[in-house]
């Protein structure tokens, strides 16, 4: 389990499971509806942004 800690300031820690298969990287996000997807570093950033948006919507 890899923790993406650069978002801790916002009160969000995204738990990510990373699995490599050849050149492809697959990611599981256990706390979300995203189970497994091919991913690039830019995609990971997009997922983090969506997580923040969802958290903000829940907290309203």
From TrEMBL:
Protein name, entry field: Uncharacterized protein
Species name: viral metagenome
């Amino acid at each position: 389990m890899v923790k993406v800690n650069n978002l801790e300031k916002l009160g969000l820690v995204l738990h990510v499971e990373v699995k490599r298969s050849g050149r492809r990287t697959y990611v599981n996000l256990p706390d979300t509806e995203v189970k497994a997807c091919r991913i690039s570093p830019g995609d990971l950033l997009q997922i983090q942004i969506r997580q923040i948006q969802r958290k903000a919507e829940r907290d309203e």
